[in-house]
Amino acid sequence: MNYITFAQLYDQLMDPEIYESWLEYFKQRVSPNSGMVLDLGCGAGALTMQLKKAGFQMEGLDLSDEMLSLASERMSRANVFFPVYQADMTDLNGLGQYAVVVSTLDSLCYLANFAELGKVFREVYAHLKEHGKFLFDVHSVYQMEKVFPDYMYNYQDQNEAFLWHSYPTDVSYGIEHELTFFIKDQATKNYQRLTEHHYERTYPLANYIDLLKEVGFKKVEVKADFGRSSVKNDSTRWFFCCDK
């Protein structure tokens, strides 16, 4: 059996339309000639690559070596390159100044607590040029309290199966995702099982806005549905565009 990592499977799982929607949201708010953009929590670099191809100057940062290896492979296949850094987003020491910092696909929801979120906001603010922008998305409280608890999604074909089950936790606005893949070995007909648990947490919308303004952001725009609509009680994800 060819060894396959969870990172590879997770990268393959993502719907390309999500990146296309994020690209459009980003392009409506940032010009390609704005300057250098840092993709914070870039993962395997799928969105970073799309932004680079769209004319933006890109750098990527992620904590996962596996994900950054996939980003390097993606760059090699496309013959399109951008710098990537392996680091914790709570400490951006050593990085330069950016015109824009972007963090997508609820990467900030993986932070352990509100104190860590504050560290990231302060690090981003410190590494943004004057009048720079910070764009990110997070899960809403509605998503955490009404959609995710006991959510299940199963997929299978002849070669693989994927099971996703979400559980509530004893932490306010927290959720645990159990993600399991079964990959078929064509030679032996046996299956390789890969399982990971992901923990995410969000906070009331006012908490995000207050923290961003406390850090120093002058203007905070919050939308839903990739910026296409205003925030409602049943919005599942919040999209922020913050001006330094």
From TrEMBL:
<feature type="domain" description="Methyltransferase">
    <location>
        <begin position="37"/>
        <end position="132"/>
    </location>
</feature>
<dbReference type="InterPro" id="IPR029063">
    <property type="entry name" value="SAM-dependent_MTases_sf"/>
</dbReference>
<protein>
    <recommendedName>
        <fullName>Methyltransferase domain-containing protein</fullName>
    </recommendedName>
</protein>
<keyword id="KW-0808">Transferase</keyword>
<dbReference type="InterPro" id="IPR041698">
    <property type="entry name" value="Methyltransf_25"/>
</dbReference>
<dbReference type="Pfam" id="PF13649">
    <property type="entry name" value="Methyltransf_25"/>
</dbReference>
